[in-house]
Structure formats: C-alpha cells, structure tokens
Design brief:
- By secondary structure, the chain is an alpha+beta fold.
- It has one domain.
- It has four helices and seven strands; from the N terminus they run αββββαβββαα.
- It has helices at 2-16, 91-105, 159-168, 170-179; strands at residues 23-27, 35-40, 47-52, 74-81, 114-116, 129-134, 149-157.
- Helix 3 crosses helix 4.
- The longest helix has 15 residues, at 2-16.
- The chain is globular and about 45 Å long.
Length: 194
C-alpha cells in the first residue's frame, strides 16, 4: 500500500496546485525509504515545496512497543514562499529532515507543533525552527482502515519567534504576526517584534 499512498499523494498535490507537474529532489536517510521534495512552479505569487513520503506509514507514539502499520495519523508538509530560495539553498534537505522526523524520532506531526532544528533552514536564512499549521489543502482519504493524509503548512521561525511559542504559545505568535502585518511566506521577512 505504501507505493499507492505515495502515488495518490503526488496526484492529489498536483491537482491542488493547478495541475502543473512539479520538479522533485530525493533525499535518503540511512534505514529509511527516500523522501521526495516536490517543487511546484512559481505561479506568479508563490512557490510551493511539499514533502512526499512522510505519509507512507502512519505516525506512531514514541512509547508504543509495536508499530501499527495500518492505524494512526498520516501527514505531509508544505512550505509556501513568496520567492524561490534556490535549488542549491539546502531547503530540500531541511524539508526532508522534517518529513523524516516521525520515522527517525517518533514525532507525531500536529498543528501548532514547534520543531527547532537549531541551524538555518536554508543557506543565509534567519530561520532556525518551524511552526506547523493546517495547510489549505484537502485531506486525502485512503482506503479503510487507514486514516486520511493531512497536510501541514510549515512556517519558518526565527530563534526569537521559537522562544515566543515556547513561552506564550502558537496562537499568541500568530496574533503578533497579524498585528504587525507580517507576511510569513516572505523568505526575507524580519522577525515579529515581540
């Protein structure tokens, strides 16, 4: 079923983003199946990157003694930016690391999850962490008993913003962004003044 899931997710994302075929970069981690990062063509407003492979298997709780290959949440990640940061920026590897986190570290991807990588998300980036939220992409139903694939928007955070989420929560940071009219899709934006 894993190949069927990956093919279905790719077709679903392609349809959601206007039917244009994406470019793909594959990243392999020792002991894991490859994670592909799809780059959808710039549509005049934004460029979108999406993981493909995170949803192959359900995410499980780290404390589970036996992995359940049927039941459990499935997810993929989407990063939306106003301009392209470049194919050689390292963004593909970063997204693959985030998408592999459930398999490598037992993380269950959820809305408001803060993942701090402690290093720039791409070359010359001021962002070192991400905040997850529901993406504006329909869930992809899978044959029962599998749960649908959910899509999470990846929002880059500065160290200051990550600290704000730890201290005050994700909702408070989103309010600060709204008050300051910060475009979180701008790869060159400044941190919110908190």
């Amino acid at each position: 079923m894993t190949d069927d899931v990956v093919a279905a997710v790719r077709a679903h994302l392609t349809a959601q983003f206007g039917g244009l075929e994406p470019a793909a970069a594959s990243v392999t981690f020792l002991g894991l199946e490859p994670i592909d990062i799809l780059r959808f063509p710039h549509d005049g407003t934004v460029v979108r990157y999406a993981s493909l492979g995170c949803s192959r298997h359900p995410m499980g709780e780290p404390g589970d003694m036996i992995a359940d290959n049927t039941h459990g949440p499935r997810a993929e990640l989407v990063l939306t930016l106003r301009s392209d940061v470049g194919a050689d920026s390292g963004i593909h590897r970063t997204l693959a690391v985030l998408a592999a986190a459930p398999a490598v570290e037992g993380i269950v991807l959820l809305p408001d999850a803060l993942i701090d990588l402690g290093e720039p998300l791409w070359r010359n980036s001021a962002f070192t962490a991400v905040l997850l939220d529901h993406a504006a992409i329909d869930e992809l139903p899978l044959p029962e008993p599998a749960e649908p694939v959910k899509f999470f928007q990846v929002t880059p955070l500065t160290q200051t913003e990550a600290a704000w989420v730890r201290l005050r929560g994700a909702a408070a940071l989103r309010e600060a962004w709204a008050e300051a009219a910060i475009d979180t899709a701008d790869p060159n934006r400044l941190a919110a003044t908190l």
